């Protein structure tokens, strides 16, 4: 009996250590389980935000298509990734920033639906000018390079929109020159597509709306 008691006494620390080890393993398992649940929750929230973002983008695209239904159906403008594209040949002659009658009339028809769209979403309209990659022809002293030509074209379109009723505070111009072509410049067909003006609704800076409101109040 004494030997059994001694043997039992000697075995007791082993069970205690085993119990501590099991407690530690359970603790680790709980931590892993909590981490896994947290990761799954974060992933689910991320997926939900992405779905909402895509839904907003789809609604934005559909709203633009509805606003521009007539010119889109007539093939006078294109709509790609929320950007309204107008061929440079419709608006301008080659190496010119003077609006052609057809281009001016087209811009006039766009002001109404674009203004409504921008008002409803408190957004601005960015007018961007693009050219092909051919250098400005010799003898043309008006433009030093394609950057200047694209800038003048964007400004011309911006001024025309304002003259036809677009509030000046809702539109601004940008120039990209030969950068960001939509197709290759290897042939005339591609270059003609790259000579274009695009209009894209963009978010208004938060403090910009407050400044505009203060200006109106003043």
TrEMBL record:
CDD domains with a match to the protein in the record: OmpA_C-like
Keywords: Membrane, Transmembrane, Transmembrane helix
Superkingdom per UniProt: Bacteria
Residue numbers spanned by region Disordered: 182-218
Pfam families (UniProt xref): OmpA (PF00691)
UniProt biased composition (Basic and acidic residues): 186-198
Residue ranges annotated for the OmpA-like domain, each copy included: 77-205
Record field: compositional bias (Polar residues): 207-218
Transmembrane segments: 14-39
InterPro entries named in the record: Bact_OuterMem_StrucFunc (IPR050330), OmpA-like (IPR006665), OmpA-like_sf (IPR036737)
Protein name listed in UniProt: OmpA-like domain-containing protein
Organism: Candidatus Accumulibacter phosphatis
Record lineage: Bacteria, Pseudomonadati, Pseudomonadota, Betaproteobacteria, Candidatus Accumulibacter
């Amino acid at each position: 009996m004494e030997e059994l008691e001694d043997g039992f006494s000697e075995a007791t620390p082993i069970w205690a250590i085993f119990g501590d080890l099991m407690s530690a393993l359970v603790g680790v398992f709980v931590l892993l389980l909590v981490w896994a649940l947290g990761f799954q929750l974060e992933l689910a929230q991320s997926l939900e935000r992405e779905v909402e973002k895509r839904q907003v983008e789809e609604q934005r695209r559909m709203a633009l298509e509805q606003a521009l239904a007539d010119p889109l159906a007539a093939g006078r403008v294109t709509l790609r990734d929320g950007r309204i594209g107008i061929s440079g040949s419709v608006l301008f002659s080659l190496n010119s920033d003077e609006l052609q009658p057809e281009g001016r009339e087209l811009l006039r028809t766009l002001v109404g639906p674009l203004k409504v769209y921008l008002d409803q979403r408190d957004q601005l309209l960015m007018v961007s000018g693009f050219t092909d990659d051919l250098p400005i022809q010799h003898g043309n002293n008006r433009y030093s390079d394609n950057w200047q030509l694209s800038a003048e074209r964007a400004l011309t379109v911006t001024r025309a929109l304002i003259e036809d009723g677009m509030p000046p505070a809702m539109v601004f111009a940008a120039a990209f020159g030969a950068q960001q072509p939509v197709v290759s410049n290897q042939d005339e067909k591609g270059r003609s597509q790259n000579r274009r003006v695009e209009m894209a609704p963009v978010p208004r800076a938060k403090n910009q709306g407050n400044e505009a409101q203060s200006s109106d109040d003043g």
